[in-house]
Structure formats: structure tokens, C-alpha cells
Amino acid sequence: MPTTTMLDQATAMIENAWGQPIKALEVLGVRRPSEDPLLRCAMHTRTALAITDNAVTVHQDRLHALSRHGYVPDFYELDRITDTAVSLRVATQRVVRTSRRSGAWWKLVRPPHPR
Q1: What is the pTM of this model?
Q2: I need a surface site. Which of 13, 66, 78, 113 has the fewest CB within 10 A?
Q3: 110: helix, coil or strand?
């Protein structure tokens, strides 16, 4: 069962806050950035999450390939496994940092809570 990534969560929050699909918002954010600077900021944060999410996926796939069941790595591949694990950790930390930074704009965007 696939898990929801921070990119998916950010996309859902942006679509919910602006009430439009992400494809339409991407066009608005690029064509008219001065009309809605908050949208521009949200789309910039989402783009950063997309880049780091892609990096995490690549490093996870590489690490899974190097450490799959029944596979005995050669001596020279041990460095590749270590480097990939470190790169995965760094990419994951970038996703966390980006999502923490995006919390500030989300507080501005979030619709009021009904009472």
C-alpha cells in the first residue's frame, strides 16, 4: 500500500486552499506571480518538495537494488551502499526541512476552522 508523501500532502493542501487543480495553479503561479504572491510561494515550496522527493526515491531504489535479498555485494560496492545510504539520509532531511519551512505559508493559507 503506497504511503502519502509530503509532496502529495502539499499538493492536496494547495488544491484545497485555492479550490483548483494543481495544473491550473501552476499556470497561474507562473503567468501572474505578482497578482498572488502567496500562490507563487506555495508553488515554489511544492517544486522544492518535488525535487527532493524525487531524490529520495532515486536513492531508495538504488539502496534497495544494492541490498536486495540474496545479493552479495562485491567489496567495492560496500562504499556505494554507504554513500547511497548517506545520500538518502541527506535527501530525506531536505524534505523535512522544506516541509517545516512550508508550515509558515500554510498557516496563512489554511481555511478557517468551522466551529
Answers
A1: 0.64
A2: 113
A3: coil
Instruction: Give pLDDT tens digits for 24-55.
Output: 888 887 777 677 888 888 888 888 888 888 88
What residue ranges of the chain have pLDDT lower than 50? 1, 108, 111-115
As a whole number of angstroms, the distance between CA 112 and CA 115 comes to 9
What's the rounded Cα separation, in Å, for the pair 14 and 7? 11
First to last CA, the chain: 34
Question: How far, in whole angstroms, is CA 53 from its chain's centroid?
Answer: 4
CB neighbours of residue 8 within 10 Å: 13
Contact assessment for residue 42 and residue 105, using Cβ atoms and an 8 Å cutoff: yes
Q: What is the widest separation between alpha-carbon atoms in the chain?
A: 62
Cα–Cα distance for residue pair 49/65, rounded to 1 Å: 24
